[in-house]
Each structure stands twice: as C-alpha cells, then as structure tokens.
Design brief:
The chain is of the alpha/beta class and 356 residues long. The protein folds into 2 domains: 212 residues, Isopropylmalate Dehydrogenase (3-Layer(aba) Sandwich), CATH 3.40.718.10; 120 residues, Rossmann fold. The chain is 40% helix and 19% strand. A 10-stranded mixed beta sheet has the order 2-1-3-12-11-4-5-10-8-9, sandwiched between helices. It has a two-stranded antiparallel ribbon with strand order 6-7. A two-stranded parallel sheet has the order 13-14. The longest helix is centred in the N-terminal third of the chain and has 16 residues. It binds 3-isopropylmalic acid (IPM) and manganese (II) ion (MN). Manganese (II) ion binds next to α9.
Length: 356
C-alpha cells in the first residue's frame, strides 16, 4: 500500500470530463484502503499545441517519466486536423508512446452480461466474450523508415526486428498464462516478409511457454472470425496497425466504445487510457460515458501499482452500476433504469466502491 504519483493528462474534447470521474473513483479508494494519490496535471494534445505551440511539451515527457503511472483522457479534434503532421495531436501521442517505450498495448474487450443486447451482434454470439488484444505499439508501419511523400507518390515501411517481436510476444504469453492460456497471433504472412518473420519469432518464443496454446491467423480471416465467433479468442497478439484495426472492431462486441479501457506498458512508466477518442461533438455536455476511463484507472492499479484488490473493487463497482440499470446516454436503450450524466455515473461508481 502506498502513496502514488500519478501524471494526469486530460487532453482535448471529453478528456477532462472523463478523467475527473476516474480521479473521483480513485480517491474513493483512499477511504477504504491505505492508498493515496498525488496528481500532477500535464499538457498534451491540441490544448498543449494551443498553449505552447507543441502537442507534446518536453515537460510532459520528463514529468511523466518521473511518475508511477500516466492516467490519460483523449486528444485531438477537427480544430487541429489541418496543422502540419508533426504539430498534430496524434503525432504528439505517437511520440509520447515512443518516449515512454510502451511497446505493449493491452486492449481487453469484455461483454458485460447486463449489456448483451447493446451489441449490434446477436446476444448468443457476444455473451461471455472476454478477450484481450495485445498490440505492438511503438514499431511497425507507424514508425518504420524510410517514409515520405513526393509529388506523385508516398510511402511508409512496415518493419519489425526480432527483438521487437520477441518482447511483445513474451508479454502476450505471460498475459495468456494468467487467463485461458491461448494466444492467437495475427499477421499477413502469406504476403508480407515482415509477417513471416513475426510468425517465425512467435513460434520460437512459444517454446518458452509450453502451457500456452498458440495458433496463427491471417489478419483478414481474424477480422472475419472476430465477428463470426469472438468467443474462440483469449489473447490476440499482433502488430501495430493490425492491432489498431482489430481492437476497434473488438470494441464493438461490447456495445459501446465508451466502456473499454487500455494499458500501454513497457519497461518504464505506463499509460492508461480509454480506447475511444476525444469526441469533440459531445464535449462539455456531460453525456460522455466515463466507464472506459474508470476501467483504465483500474488497469493502472493492477498493472502499474500492483494494487490488484483495489482494481477488482473498481471492476465490481462498474458491474454493479450497470446491473442496477444506471446508463449514460450512449447506452440509454439497453435496460436502463436511470439515465445519468458523466458526473453522476462517476459518483455512483465511487459510492459502490466505498459501500460494497
Ligand atoms: C489509437 C488511435 C491512435 C493510433 C491514433 C490517434 C494515433 O487510433 O490509440 O488506437 O492509431 O494508435
Ligand atoms: Mn485506433
């Protein structure tokens, strides 16, 4: 138990509203456990560009590296879309991930029993889904060189080294060992050399984890299987861009992208953030769903701080709130007993944390 230093990056759009609710829930933990949090708010994204001219000020990097974990809201918005690429909020985020060395992006997709009807897929297909996408986050085509744009052509390079594949594969196998012990590695080895290397290295690493069952799937097939029969998956291990796409797809199994958290971890400080974006169209209205961010705070407790009991407490409180019919507007049509605002949802979950 301890006193933890949390770097807080609220960002743009709904970022500030949802992060405030996660902080409310974290602080509620202090009244039942011997844990306390010290928050330091840092600038990043469009707001950082507006204030400092840089979407990722140096101070944000150094202070984040000096904290126990980074709790992150969301960044970006149309307002900054026409800036040169390196000034855009998204470039700031990519640089941030790289600076923190967070090579493993964990994106769980869980279907809450209370919300099986919220998915666009049939309830019998999604009921009980509990999978985790482990996405490589600081390599692949997002960062590969050479890249460039000329008058009539442009190019990016998908590149992975053996070492980059080894470390992400190990993470995936370790995670699977604590779950249902299955890893499905997703690539495009029938076409891409980089994917053939990926497959070869994953096969090698799998020998270190004989208790975990490994399978391979081409990314096009995986996209199809995720909708056809998502329950077949436990851990999906994949590269940066395939993981970007598949994790958005997986998020819809649960009915609302407003529910799903993520953790980005490496060997230094991790970033904990909802998988959804900054939703500028609904910012400031108090209707955003804070659950994904609250669940991200729970992942932070578990993966960064080792406070597993406190993390479980938050997860239970989220489930209880959903079970009792509390819904933000995105889920209003699914067995809602009471529609609540962003702020009310945060308070309800914080109350369950204290009282349950
Ligand atoms: C994500 C986002 C980012 C990504 C963008 C905003 C750079 O889509 O976190 O999935 O592509 O990684
Ligand atoms: Mn994405």
């Amino acid at each position: 138990m301890g006193n933890y230093k949390i770097a807080v990056i609220k960002g743009d759009g709904i970022g500030p509203e949802i992060v405030d609710e996660a902080i409310k829930v974290l602080d509620a933990l202090s009244s039942i456990y011997d844990i306390s949090f010290e928050y330091e708010e840092l600038l990043m994204g469009g707001i950082a560009y507006d204030i400092t001219g840089d979407p990722l000020p140096q101070e944000t990097i150094s202070k984040s590296l000096n904290s126990d974990a980074v709790l992150f809201g969301a960044i970006g918005g149309e307002k900054w879309d026409s800036l040169p690429r390196e000034k855009r909020p998204e470039s700031g985020l990519l640089r941030f991930r790289k600076e923190l060395g967070v090579y493993a992006n964990l994106r769980p997709a869980v279907v809450y029993d209370e919300l099986v009807n919220a998915s666009t897929l049939k309830p019998e297909v999604v009921e009980g889904v509990d999978l985790m996408v482990v996405r490589e986050l600081i390599g692949g085509i997002y960062f590969g060189e050479p890249k460039g744009r000329e008058a009539t052509r442009a190019y990016n390079t998908m590149v992975y080294s053996v070492e980059e594949i080894e470390r992400i594969a190990r993470r995936a196998f370790e995670i699977a060992q604590k779950r249902r012990k299955k890893v499905c590695s997703v690539d495009k080895a029938n076409v891409l050399d980089v994917s053939q290397l990926w497959r070869d290295v994953v096969n090698e690493i799998s020998k270190e984890y004989p208790d975990v069952e490994l399978s391979h799937m081409y990314v096009d097939n995986a996209a199809m299987q995720l909708i056809r029969d998502p329950k077949q998956f436990d851990v999906i291990l994949t590269g940066n861009i395939f993981g970007d796409i598949l994790s958005d797809e997986a998020s819809m199994l649960s009915g609302s992208i407003g529910l799903l958290p993520s953790a980005s971890i490496g060997d230094k400080v991790g970033i904990y953030e909802p998988i959804h974006g900054s939703a500028p169209d609904i910012a400031g209205q108090g209707i955003a769903n804070p659950i994904a961010t609250i669940a991200s705070a729970s992942m932070m407790l578990k993966y960064a701080l080792g406070e597993v009991e406190a993390a479980n407490k938050i997860d239970e409180a989220i489930k209880q709130a959903l079970k009792d019919g509390y819904r933000t507007k995105d889920l209003a049509d699914f067995d809602a007993k009471e529609i609540c605002s962003t702020n009310e949802m945060g308070s309800i979950i914080a109350n369950y944390v204290v009282k349950s």
